[in-house]
Structure formats: C-alpha cells, structure tokens
Records
---
Amino acid sequence: MAYDRFGRNLHYLRISLTDRCNLRCVYCMPEDIKFMPHAALMQDNEILRLARIFARLGVDKIRLTGGEPTVRPGVVELVRGLRAIPGIREITMTTNGILLSRLAKPLAEAGLDRVNVSLDTLHAAKFRRLTRWGDIEDVLDGIQAAEEAELQPVKLNAVVVRGYNEADVVDMARLTLDHPWQVRFIEMMPFAGATDFQRLMLVTAEQMKARIEEALGPLEPVDGGRLDGEARLYRLPGARGQIGFIASVTQPFCAACTRLRLTADGHLRLCLLREDEVDILTPLRQGASDEDLRRLIQQAVWRKPWGHGLAQGEAPQDRTMSQIGG
Ligand code: SAM
Ligand code: SF4
C-alpha cells in the first residue's frame, strides 16, 4: 500500500491523458494556449506500464482526465488495457462530454465504469461564453449517450463563476429532482493562465448553497454531511439525485485526500494546488526498471504535502488547470 507520512492511503490515481482540449473554458486556460509536443506526452505503453506499477503499490481506482481525455487518439484501447490490470477496481473519466455521443458506448464496452461530465449551465449562450467554443447540444447528447451506455451514476461538474453562471446553480440543482444524477458545484481554484480572473470571480460553496436554498428550500445533508470524496452531499426533499459542493478553496479536504496525479508529460504531482512534482517519465525512458520506478514513486508519495496556500495568497503558477487534470 502507498501511505504518505501523514498516514493517508493513496489508492486513487488521476491520469491526465493529454493537455489538449476541444474547448477553451475561461476558468481553465487562455484561448491562445500552446500545447506540449506529442513526444513529450506519455505514450500508451508508458501509461500502462506505470499504471501496473501503481496498482502493485495499492492503487485500485483510476480516473482519466486532461485536457480533454476523449480527444486522445486510441483512448478506447487504452481503457481496455487499463481494465486488464490486476487490482484496478474502478476506472472513471472526467470529460466535457462533447465527444461522448460517439464514444460512450465503446468506452463502456472497453471497461469504463462511470463518467463525470462538466456542465456549468443549461443556457446555450452562457455555455458558449464559459467554454468559448462549445455547443451545449453536444454535451446534452453526450450525457444521454452516457446514460444509455450505463456509465452510471452520471455526475455533473459545474464550476461556478461570478458574472457568468452564479444564478444557474438553481436550474442545475433542479435537475436532481427528476434525474438520478449527482450535480456537483465546484469552487473555482486559481492556477497559472487565469489566476486574477479565478480569484476575482470566485463564488463560495456557502454562497451557492444559500442561493439554491432561497429558491428551492432547505437541502438535507446526505450521510450526516460527511464528505463523499471531495464533495459534501445534500438532497432536495423527494429528489432522485444528489447535490454536492466541492469547496476546495474555502474548506480544503486535505485530511481526506487519497489522490495521486500523473500529468500528461509523466510527472507525479503530489497536490493539485502545490507545485511539488517528480518526473517519472524521464527515468522510465532512460531505462529504469519497474523496481527503480516503484522506489521513485514511493519516495515521492512519502512527501505528499498537507494543505494548500490559497488563504496565504499562494497559487500554483507552473501549470494551468488543464495541464494538471483537475
Ligand atoms: N476536460 C475535462 C472536463 O472539463 O471535464 C477534464 C479536465 S478539466 C481540467 C477537469 C475538471 O476541472 C472539470 O470539471 C473542470 O470544470 C474543472 N476545472 C477547470 N478549471 C477549474 C478551476 N480553475 N477551478 C476549479 N475547477 C476547474
Ligand atoms: Fe477543456 Fe476541461 Fe479545461 Fe474546459 S475545463 S478547457 S473542457 S480541459
């Protein structure tokens, strides 16, 4: 098992498959972002080899992310390869949903268990403004395809941005009345690429919850208000689905963190909001054995940090959100 020095069992690995994306969300990346050259990205065989080493270290859950994971060529075969690794119990994906109407079925057949689809509003024009390039119909079709492919339960991720979609939390929350979905509202975090915007336009989880309750009545805590992963879950009375708040900025959940992150260029990122990373891909390409890589990972994991510095005005400036994978 991979434990850090605080006794956290790190069994959940998020793998960024690419830094590329078919959208340009205002809270994630600048419109003119430059992507990494293909050769800098982990190749399929490299991802599979590292995933096998992580699985032997106790990782049992993998989430594929990006950039946009579905734009990676060969993503279906990659999922199939990951599925065949002993010890991997669950494979999920975070996606903007644009390509899901085509890919949901093959991904499910290859062994993907679930998807989180990012959708910040139900209004087409606001969706376009937030994503710069997106057509909301593609995402809605994608969500339907995910349900048909039984990639369930579908979770929707909504980043809430002042001046863009803070009023839309009500319509998004209302979706849970009729759909068995988990709609999760996310506090916007600051990274390189859009730091000032991300700080200025923050809407806190408390503000989102107050707005929903004002319109729809009191939310009931699910599971006594305990964290489910990073989300605190609630329910509208009689609803089929659940509402979650991910308050990474105002209520960090470091004690409950079980995550490791592999960036698309093969760096082990120890905390989303801290710059500490260990390059795993270079030693792998230089001929390191599985045992060497296992030791490198274990040493890195041991120094996983506790706590981010957002309250002190620190924000990671080495990568955009899309380069880390969320
Ligand atoms: N492209 C995929 C997507 O959008 O779902 C996966 C990658 S994206 C970086 C992963 C998640 O991070 C998405 O749910 C996205 O909304 C969220 N995200 C992006 N920028 C963020 C920010 N500055 N603060 C909080 N969440 C952010
Ligand atoms: Fe792309 Fe996801 Fe970032 Fe939006 S949040 S630009 S969809 S990586």
---
Amino acid sequence: MKEKVYLKFEELFGKEGEIKTYFAPGRVNLIGEHTDYNGGHVFPCALTMGTYAVARKRNDNKLRFYSINFEKLGVLESTIDELKYNKEENWINYPKGMIWAMKEEGFNINTGFDIVYYGTIPNGAGLSSSASIEVLTGFVLKDLFNLNVDMVKLALLGQKAENKYVGVNCGIMDQFVIANGKKDCAIFLDTANLEFEYAPVKLKEEKIVIMNTNKKRGLGDSKYNERRAECEEALKELQTKLNIKSLGELTEEEFEKNKHLIKDKNRKKRAKHAVYENQRTIKAVEALKENKIEELGKLMIASHNSLRDDYEVTGKELDTLVDESLKQEGIIGARMTGAGFGGCAVSIVKSDKVENFIKNVGKAYKDKIGYEASFYTVEIGDGPQII
Ligand code: GLA
C-alpha cells in the first residue's frame, strides 16, 4: 500500500527532497451512537483500514493535492492563503479545513506542500473516511512544521474543521478515536469532559464484521444536524426544572420522571434515545471487561432498536442487514454504526461462522434491496503513524 502511494507521489511531483509516508485509521463505533454531542459516552475503536498520505514541504505557498480514490479529479491546487470552503472542490475541503483550523489556532504553517492520499476505507460509508483525512492532515502538518500539538488537541481541531469549515455539526467521537486509537482496544470516552480509558477487546472466538449497505449518502445532506437540534431543544425543556448541562447526565429513572417537560413527541423520543444509549454504553463496557460477550451483544441489539424506533436514523438498508444478521448462526450482536441513514452496520460473529454469515446475509440483502452489500472482517489498529 505504502509503495503504491509513494510511487504515485514520485510520478506526479518528482523524487527530490524529503518525502515521508503517513497513515491514520478509520473507525468503527461498537456502541454509544448519537451520544457524543449530548455529553454522553461512546465506545469506538480505530481500524487497521484507513488513509495513507505521502507528503513533502514546498518553498512557496502552493498546496497540491491528489487522491488515488478520486483519480478523475486529477491534481487540485490551492494556496495556504486561500482557505475557504468551496463545494466544487470536493474532497480537498477536508484537508483544507484542517489546515485552516490549525492556522486559526495560531500554528505557524508558513509554506505549502504536495500531498497524495489513498484511503482503504470506503468513502461516505460511516467509517469516518473524512475524519481520517482531517486527523491525518493534522498529523502530517505536525510533522512537517514541527508543531507542538498533542493528539487530543489534533482531534479537537479536526472537529473544528468539520463544524466550522465543512459545516457538519458532528461531535468529537470520530476525530478522537482516530487520533488516539490503540491496537486491540476500544476507547471508552466521556464526551462531557474528554476523559477516556482504553478497554482491551479480547475476542478469542469471535470476529468483528462490518457490513456496508452501499447506499450513498453524505452527512451534510442527511438529517444529522436536525437530530442534534432536536436534542438541544429537548435539553432546554428539561433545564426549565433540572440543573443539568447535557442529556448524558441523566439516568433512565431521572429521564422517565421528567420527560413530561418535553412537549413534542419526537423530541421526547430523541432525548430518550440519548439517555438510554448512554447508559447502555456504560453497561456494555462493564460487560466487555467481565468478558460477558453475550451481554455486549444484547446491548448492541437494543442500541439498534432504539436508533430505529426512537432516533429514526436507520432506514430499510441498515434494518435489513441487522435483521438478517440476527437470524444467522453464530451471531452475538449487530447494530448500525456511525451517523446512520445508510452507511455501515457492525456485528460480532463467531469466527467459524463468519463465512456462512457473510454468504447468507449478503444473499438476503441482495434479494430484498436489489444491490449488493459489502463485508469486511476487521482488526482494531493504532492511531496515526509515520510509516
Ligand atoms: C457521526 C459523527 C459523530 C457521531 C456519530 C453518531 O459519525 O461524526 O460525531 O455523532 O455520527 O454517533
């Protein structure tokens, strides 16, 4: 992989000077969905699939970008002084957004650079290809310009690029886990204060299988921002009586006692999901620590049901993948992962049943939806690296 990107760089931009290769992972969230902008917990892990970059500093202010995933777009040029969102510029808004966020923060990025990217995570599929490019670009900048910035800060700047430059009001989960990922561990993160711990995921007899609906979608045109606004509104209604800063502070009982304060039926459902999902995430981490994998599976299924019925972010493609998964031998648990509205689902499956699982779910999905799903048996990997 590394060679492929390196050779492309040399072909496009020449062999001279100091050229370096970098990698940042994609991510999958095991549980804790739509909780990260509600002050709740999340439980994602970094993947060994991710984004590669080969880069070299320049002496002028020019930026030259190329992605092997978007060959038809060719080399896209800009400068470090022209950092404004432009829909037409397609994928380079993510790296440009990151450069913008870092410059805004006062980091001294005084020359341009040439860079070639190659992602092995499918684009726009809910495995955080965009956060991967953002954090990777930040990591490249840290190295090229010798910047004193830690990985938590890089994650926050990635989120800022997404919120303020690209215009998606995402939470901190994706950038955080990508920046801080650790092999064979999931990250139990409290998004209220960014305290986190690594929880080993010791699956001896099981595998994590990601199922891609292959339904095209983009977060920007999804209902993501709408859900976030609904939760904020519900919080305000609860705050008329409760002294809380976020929905993540509530237990299920406290929510039930006070839910009458939320006047709208849909808002009540959205807030219920945020509260219950946060508690499920806390329970899931406990279950995993005690090696109660079946219990983790049950919580994953409850998470999907809540995302389908109360948060209403699944859709027939994701529901079909999860329903069909739950019919298979060797299934421990399955749920949608990421923002929803298409994208991917994640399942835990007994290792010796994975082959049949993929065959059967794949066939049922094709029969019901009309096109193929994709499947990836994944490993949990480390955060950004120079390779
Ligand atoms: C997207 C966002 C995250 C998070 C998830 C839903 O991946 O980028 O911040 O909100 O959706 O859990």
